[in-house]
């Protein structure tokens, strides 16, 4: 049986899940980069992070197949890396977690949680009526598997969802789905915007001054996609001017976010440390095992990506 090379910074959860779900399969867990290169010299499957896989590829070794534990895979698209190996990204692992993250901040915003906590600290009896999500318009930029999971999670709240994808289509839970070229047009009536897009040439600097100006005043912006999509200074300006009522960022151009970055001091900005959609190890192992069976049976892999067809970065 072909061995599996695990490429994870935090391997313990994967090793435990492997013991429970696939004890008969050989799992190799390198203790350092040198051992990883040595183990990868032998033909094997890889399971793990694209950044660690990219480091191995630069050493001149390639997998028989790489199952990523990330939804995104930008590190594998570097111009100096090969693309002639089988690859599948992580699918079906993040929708619930990111959906709960988004819902947390939508409700916090509408129920004015921060303001009511301040009223409590000040001993002020705050009788302002809260808002509601029912009937509100949400723009979900990224209507792939994660976006569709979020749409299902939000369905009971009665929101009106517009999706943005590579092309227009009809999807359950969405009033409509439009191509990325129509982003500014559909932003005009969006009270909430949620970004789920990966890092690519077409998504960098997408959320700039023109985009924020297209939104109705008082909108809430949530970024659970990639930090490169946002022009930092122009987001700050939109918050300081009041054009945006608030923003929630889980991803940044540089992580960890430097202590001197102005985001730390920007009003009405909530920051989290790339925790919206952590990979659940047991679910990632199940995905690997399902795709391994598909591979052995000559069936299409879930999340299969033709890297040679992707734009290099």
Automatic annotation (TrEMBL):
Coiled-coil residue spans: none
Gene3D superfamilies: NAD(P)-binding Rossmann-like Domain (3.40.50.720)
Keyword terms: NAD, Oxidoreductase
InterPro entries, per database record: D-isomer_DH_NAD-bd (IPR006140), NAD(P)-bd_dom_sf (IPR036291)
Signal peptide extent: none
Domain D-isomer specific 2-hydroxyacid dehydrogenase NAD-binding: 104-276
Pfam annotation, one family: 2-Hacid_dh_C
PANTHER family: 2-HACID_DH_C DOMAIN-CONTAINING PROTEIN, D-ISOMER SPECIFIC 2-HYDROXYACID DEHYDROGENASE NAD-BINDING DOMAIN-CONTAINING PROTEIN
Protein name according to UniProt: D-2-hydroxyacid dehydrogenase
